[in-house]
Structures are given as structure tokens and as C-alpha cells.
Write a structure and sequence with these properties.
By secondary structure, the protein is an alpha+beta fold. It has 20 helices and nine strands.
């Protein structure tokens, strides 16, 4: 019987019936009565479908009407096919159910409608639609004023360029609010050390000090690999109804303009064709933009299952596992060296199954005989700065004190003074004695207004 309906009408009809079911008391008689009011007649499948819905949903799924509509469509499809000469029923009126939050696992704000979200963000419905790019202008427009992001490509030695997508001030302010008032309440996995309060690159590295061997792997295109569907799932898990989760997802994801993707389609080296093609494809679909305040937290949450599975693998192999953004690390005894090939194969399978890709060009396995380094931190005996990095920084400070800082700013840092203080602060966290020596050198530098 369902096959006689046009596909578009099937979707339309199932949504109408779903909304009728949700628009009042959740029992068979009331649900069928409301559906009768919505349609010009009762089709033969209405009563058995209502019973199937009640068997599947003990409580009304008011936070997910589209899911209910899809269930209804499948339920009708599964019924015995019987002829009906009267043709499909017509929609006479559309009942509007009251949206509700789903189960809230964390103390996130209660936002049951897109209007409530707009009020929460202190913007109009029109502004919300614009910032969420409901019309998909970001992909096609060439006028910078019509975009919500600015773009830059940062070259990387031996790899595809890093594409930075920086939201403009209005969208950035809204993303910061979503970060601090929603995402901060949703915990990442214990193995995640990046972008998490109380953890850092140093805590990530510290978990692997004094081990016989350290295996480090890199995830390719970490942020672009996380598609909008996974972000939608995070907001749904937090309890937001489908319409609100869609809006939140749109505010936190992006599609790069076609011109940016075309640049990536012409790599400088033939060996980068595959890498840049994959990156361009990821950027051309809704994804987490690298440069948005919400992306790091959402990336951690999207990688929760990955962290859980890799932590389980590490535990079974008597290894330690942590992740800092796209850097994955395992460490343990000499057994890891002997089983390295098998371990890599198991890791690859898990990573692929979770929607990520290992960058083989950045994977290393180092025993204690070599320099074991994670996120710039040496971990052979204790967390420390590499001697060569320390000597280089010390030389820069010494030469800046003798000859002036301008000639030492080889990287063209706009605020060279703050840059050097930041590097000294990094050393302070790893080796206070060395940092004290560097600070004394820094204090001898004569800073001019130009520097």
C-alpha cells in the first residue's frame, strides 16, 4: 500500500502523522483520534502503526519528531500490502506538538526550540539563521562581506597546508558562549589532555615518562575529519531537540568556499595529491573549522569513542594511552617493540572505524636509547625540554641582549617580546632552573618602542 504513494508525499504524510501523535496524550485512542483530525480519512494502516509506535516508545519522543516520522514510514512499509482504491489520504490540518528537551545528562541550559536558542544567544531569529548559514552562502559567495569566516592557508613542510577558518567577531562571540555555557559541562574522556581544563601537553607527555618504548601517531586532518553529523550527535546526546541540535551544529560547523578547495586540488608535489584531495573533500562538506572557539571541545567529544576503544586496547596490552588533540601516544615495556606491527594494525582498524585516518608519515616508535618526545616534551626520564631547543632559545636571548632584539626575530613575530616570554614560560613548566637562567638573559635585553 505504501508503494502507491509518491516518495515526497510519503515523507510529508509520515511527518504529519508523527506531529499528530505527539500533539497530546500518549495513548492509542488519543493518538489515532488526533491523526483522524489531521487527515481526511483514516487509512487502514493507522491503528497498527500507532500500536507499533507505542511498543517502541514508552514515552513520547517530543525531542525527536523526525526520528518518529522515519519510524512511522518504516512501520507502514513493513505492513502487508493491500490494495486501496480510494488512494492516499489527504492532509486536512497539521497539529503542532510542543517540543521538549530530551534526557539531560549534564547541566546544560534548557533550550527546547530554535526561538529559545535565539533568545539565549541574544539575537533575532533572522540573525540566528544568518549565522547558522541556513542558505549555504559560505560555500558559493565571493563577496567577503557575505561570509562568516576568513580563511588562510599555512604551508607545512612535507604535507598539505593547514587551512585556518577564523569566524568573524559576531559568530566568534556566539561560539565562545556555546563553549562556556554548554560544551564546558560535557566531559571529555580521561585520556584526552588537549583543550581540557587541568590538562595540557605536559600532562599528556608526563604519562609516558621513564618507559622503555613510546609509540606516537598523528591523526590526519583532525578537525576537518569531524563531520557535522557527529557534532549533531553530541548536541542530541546533551538532550537538545532535533531542531535546536541542527541549529547548534550549523553554528559550530562550516563549509569552505569552492575557491579554497580549488587551491588544494593543485598540490606542489605529486606525492601530496592523495593527501590534499582528502583534505579538500573534507573541507567541502560541513565539518569542524580549525580556528573556531568551539572546535577543540567538540573534537574531544567526537573522539570520545576513539579514546575509549584505544584506552581499552592499551589496558589489554598493559600499555599507557593518552591523546593530545591529533597526537596519539602509547608507551610500555619492550613487549611493545616485539608486537609493534600487530599493535599498529589494531590501532589503524580502530582509528578507521571511528572515522579518522592515521598519518603514517608522522608515526614514530622510539626506545629509551633514542630521544622520546611528545608535543615538544622529552620524556625519557622526566618531562624536559630538548637540549637543542634550550640552547637555541638561550642563544637567541643572548644575541638579543648583545645586538638588539630586532635582528633575532627571524620568524617575524609581531610581538617578539611576548613571544620570548611565552617560550620562557613553557620552559618554566618543564625545568624551573633552566627557565631562571633564560629569564636573566631576557632581563638584559634593551627593548625599544619598535621592538
Amino acid at each position: 500500500m505504501w508503494a502507491m504513494y509518491d516518495r515526497r508525499f510519503r515523507v510529508y504524510l509520515s511527518r504529519c502523522v508523527a506531529d499528530a501523535f505527539l500533539a497530546g496524550v500518549w495513548n492509542e485512542r488519543a493518538m489515532v483520534a488526533r491523526a483522524d483530525r489531521s487527515l481526511d480519512r483514516r487509512p487502514g494502516w493507522m491503528l497498527p502503526v500507532a500500536r507499533e509506535v507505542l511498543r517502541a516508545y514508552v514515552r513520547p519522543p517530543a525531542d525527536r519528531p523526525r526520528e518518529l516520522a522515519a519510524f512511522i514510514a518504516n512501520a507502514i512499509e513493513a505492513l502487508p500490502r493491500e490494495g486501496d482504491d480510494r488512494g492516499p489520504p489527504r492532509v486536512r490540518r497539521w497539529l503542532m506538538p510542543e517540543p521538549e528537551m530530551g534526557r539531560r545528562r549534564w547541566p546544560v541550559p534548557e533550550l527546547a526550540t530554535a526561538g529559545a536558542l535565539a533568545a539565549f544567544l541574544e539575537c533575532s531569529d533572522g540573525d540566528l539563521s544568518w549565522l547558522a548559514d541556513a542558505r549555504g552562502l559560505e560555500r558559493t559567495v565571493t563577496d567577503e562581506r557575505l561570509r562568516n569566516y576568513r580563511y588562510s592557508l599555512i604551508p607545512r613542510r612535507g604535507g598539505a597546508p593547514r587551512v585556518i577558518e577564523r569566524p568573524k567577531s559576531r559568530l566568534k562571540a556566539i561560539q565562545r558562549r556555546l563553549l562556556h555555557e554548554i560544551l564546558d559541562y560535557i566531559p571529555a574522556h580521561d585520556a584526552a589532555h588537549g583543550f581540557t581544563r587541568g590538562r595540557s601537553a605536559i600532562t599528556h607527555a608526563a604519562e609516558h615518562t621513564g618507559r622503555f618504548v613510546v609509540l606516537r601517531l598523528d591523526l590526519e586532518d583532525f578537525f576537518p575529519s569531524i563531520a557535522a553529523g557527529r557534532v549533531f550527535g553530541i548536541f542530541r546526546t546533551a538532550g537538545y531537540p532535533e531542531s535546536v541540535a541542527y541549529a547548534l551544529t550549523a553554528l559550530c560547523t562550516n563549509v569552505v568556499p569552492s575557491g579554497v578547495a580549488r587551491v588544494l586540488s593543485s598540490p606542489a608535489e605529486p606525492r601530496l595529491i592523495g593527501t590534499q584531495f582528502r583534505l579538500a573533500r573534507r573541507l567541502a562538506t560541513p565539518h569542524l573549522p580549525q580556528g573556531a572557539p568551539t572546535s577543540p571541545a567538540l573534537a574531544n567529544l567526537a573522539a570520545f569513542r576513539l579514546d575509549r576503544r584505544l584506552s581499552g586496547l592499551a589496558s589489554a596490552q598493559e600499555l599507557t594511552y593518552t591523546r593530545y588533540a591529533d597526537d596519539i601516544a602509547f608507551s610500555g615495556s619492550a613487549r611493545l617493540v616485539r608486537n609493534a606491527a600487530t599493535m599498529r594494525s589494531m590501532i589503524d582498524r580502530i582509528v578507521r572505524a571511528e572515522g579518522f585516518t592515521v598519518n603514517d608519515n608522522k608515526s614514530t616508535l622510539v626506545t629509551r636509547a633514542g630521544r622520546q618526545q611528545l608535543c615538544g616534551v622529552v620524556v625519557n626520564r622526566r618531562t624536559n625540554m630538548a637540549r637543542t631547543d634550550y640552547d637555541t632559545l638561550k642563544a637567541i636571548l643572548h644575541n638579543a641582549a648583545r645586538h638588539g632584539p630586532a635582528g633575532q626575530n627571524h620568524g617575524g613575530e609581531p610581538d617578539f617580546r611576548t613571544h620570548l616570554l611565552g617560550r620562557i614560560a613553557w620552559v618554566q613548566q618543564l625545568h624551573p632552573e633552566r627557565a631562571a637562567k633564560l629569564r636573566r638573559e631576557f632581563d638584559h635585553i634593551a627593548w625599544s618602542a619598535e621592538a
